[in-house]
Amino acid sequence: MIVDNSSEGDCKSKSTDRVTEYQTTNGDCHQEIKVTNSSCFGIRPFLKTFSQVKMGCCGCGEDDSAKIEPGSQERELSFSESEVFAKKRSCTDLPALLILILIIAGYGFFVSCAVKKGDPFRLLYGYDDCANVCGRVTSKETNPEFSCKGADMRELRYHYAELGVEGVKSRKCIENCDRLGNETIRFLNRCIVKTNGNNPTNALLNNMGVKNFFNEAANDLNIAWRELIYLLLIALASSLGILIAFRYIVQYVIFIVLSGAVVISIAGTIYLWLLWHFEKKDVMAGKIDEEEAHIQAYLVYAILMSIVAVVTLLVVLVMRRRIALVSQLFKETGKAIYSMPGLLLQPIYTYIVISASLVTWLYIMLWIESAGDLYKNKKGHYHYKKNGLLEGARWYNIFMYFIMMQFYLGCQHMIVAGAVARWFFTRDKKQLSMPVTRSTCSLIRYHLGTVAFGALIIAIVKFLRAIFAYTAKYIQKYDNAWIKALLCCCNCCLWCFENALKFLTRNAYIETAIYGCNLCAGGRKAFRALTDNILRVAAINSVGDFVLFLGKVLVVALTIVAGVYLIQKKDGLHHPWVPITLGGLFALLISHCFISIYEMIIDTIFICFCEDCSRNDGISRPYYMSRGLMEFVENSKEAMKKL
Hints:
Layout: E1 2-3, E2 18-26, E3 29-37, H1 43-52, H2 94-117, H3 121-124, E4 158-164, E5 167-174, E6 184-187, E7 190-193, H4 200-208, H5 210-223, H6 225-285, H7 295-318, H8 320-339, H9 346-370, E8 373-376, E9 382-385, H10 388-424, H11 435-475, H12 481-515, H13 519-532, H14 534-567, H15 577-615, H16 627-630, H17 636-642
Parallel strand pairs: 1-3, 4-7
Antiparallel strand pairs: 2-3, 4-5, 6-7, 8-9
Helix pairs in contact: 2-9, 2-10, 2-11, 6-7, 6-8, 6-14, 6-15, 7-8, 8-14, 8-15, 9-10, 9-15, 10-11, 10-12, 10-15, 11-12, 12-13, 12-15, 14-15
């Protein structure tokens, strides 16, 4: 804090003869105060000023009494942007990044073991009793015990498994499925023969047209590919239109949603009480037998609905100011997107990387699942059996999938949070230069370790849930209710813990983007900010998320309606619902991409708003927030006057 008091009269000019440093201790907070002394500024005026000001520090909360009244000092205190948004940063959570690199190296080891003993075509094309892959040339074995393996099956492309009483009787590679008769379903390169034409399952398959469904669906997509492109463009335009609408008319949407909830709950309560009243009146008049009446049920329903109506009304009345904050956050998010349109491209980059990684992961999974050591069973058929290393590779592959998906999403969260925080804590928005690019560079240079740490924590919890699900599957054959209940309880607790961890980690990324701290420090800051504003958080997570959900539903509904109009009447289609459904799924994915970014921006602006309130008072330390957000601060009038 720099104090420069010059008295009136002879002391109007500022003098800087010497600087005296004072140190104050407030709990764990240590601060240095520099006082400019001159012939017209002694220690007594300074002590008088110091006695009127209760010092705060970074990380310590300030109450209303700690704020400096406007006009108490002739010169405003200067606070640069770097004191809130950290420009000087250092690498965070490097051990977590090193652990992630070691995990990737271990993954490479398991993949190399699977490649040595695996072949994806064993799963894709199938193999016969001698382990010869259908439609390919299989390499021979050096072990004379497996001399049957090593035939040329390029002319025998289709796999046929003959079923017996005890399961698979034999496996063959055949030239064509037609030689097996008319009662054959061709699925990929498999020939599936129906054992009983009168079987209800087979009849259902015939009625659904499964035999030719894939060919007909592919033909439909080939005919309606132009309409599918139109549907994608409609979904894209609808998503952008929803984002624009969120900025300008979201307050009306929120008003309609809340008013509808209140009106429906009150109307439902009145209706149920009237039902109970008329039912009771009819029973007393003898029009309805008392045993056939539902007086007790209607009474219970009416009481429960009354409780719901009262709670809904009270929540709306108590949280009306917090709900207004949600509306303002939507407007601020629209401003941020308008200033940084590059934010809308982030989900596209993320999902391209995720899609490429998913394809790679599936390809590696084929190698792992097909890998094994060749052996001969009791029937003399050749099979592949996994050893302990390959079983471990299967689980390692699942764990790697969880880590990489969370890492990619964490990188997106960090980039968006860094760009929005830089935008929020820049007073002159015209001086904002490439915030998204700079946030990406900051992530790569400093905070990859923090994202890796968060991804590891969430991936471990997900992996534990997968283990519990796998264990529960095998325990189901044992009739032990206690073990089943215990596993179900553990799985439920892990699910709740995972969602809470995701929520806290995402907000910790925002704090890291603001202050450049590690994940643990960011988590503490985020937890403190969220608990101090618990009602505002509840409003955002209830009303805000519901409005965003309505946006997704609207985009999907518009796309499906347009699909029905464009595709349903098109000639030559066997299953019009296939391209329409596919268009709806693409619309859901597109709307989720854009609206999830919108949700992340709202969370970031809210955390920045909380940090701005805790670090500044709007008078001696001006707020960074806009005038719209300033209305939700206690000293908003004084702060606006100061502006």
